[in-house]
Design brief:
Helix content is about 35%, strand content about 20%. A four-stranded antiparallel β-sheet has the order 2-3-1-4. Strand 2 and strand 3 form a beta hairpin. Helix 2 crosses helix 3. It holds the Pfam family AsnC_trans_reg. GO terms for molecular function: sequence-specific DNA binding. This is Winged helix-turn-helix transcriptional regulator.
Length: about 150
């Protein structure tokens, strides 16, 4: 799907939904200058086209008890990439996981309660998995910006 398939009204609707996913159709209609029904139709169209994948709450992980946020670069033997990625994706501590360019690299964001849980995740969930050849980690000290998949 090409970005030129969307007009300025669609872009404003998406921007507003990213800012506040709970905004009402009425409020959106007032902001973009179209009817509530037209806003609903446009949102449904964006959903059907796969532009909007779902509506969700953005949680402050620290306030929810997940105080350690770490990123991992995980190199995997090519023949095991899909199985390892799916195994890690099923782990509740894994917030996101992506296949990256390069040999066979997964980029992963992990949220855990404390360093003891991080150590257990590394030892039990990474080092014990067949096919993983290298693990590199970085712990977030301070978050300045988090886009949640869309640039405002």
């Amino acid at each position: 799907m090409k970005s030129n398939e969307f007009d300025q009204t669609d872009r404003i609707i998406v921007d507003e939904l990213v800012r506040d996913g709970r905004i009402s159709y009425v409020e959106l209609a007032e902001k973009v200058g179209i009817s509530r029904v037209a806003v609903k139709d446009r949102i449904n169209s964006l959903i059907n086209k796969g532009v909007i994948e779902n509506f969700t709450a953005v949680i402050n992980s620290e306030r929810f008890g997940q105080n350690i946020s770490a990123f991992f670069e995980v190199d995997v033997e090519p023949m095991n990439l899909q199985a390892v990625a799916q195994n890690l994706a099923d782990n509740p501590s894994v917030a996101s996981i992506y296949q990256m360019t390069g040999p066979s690299t997964l980029h992963m964001h992990v949220l855990v309660e404390d360093f003891k849980m991080l150590e257990a995740f590394i030892n039990d969930e990474l080092y014990s998995v067949e096919g993983i050849t290298r693990v590199d980690s970085s712990i977030i000290l301070k978050r300045f910006k988090s886009r949640k998949g869309y640039k405002l």
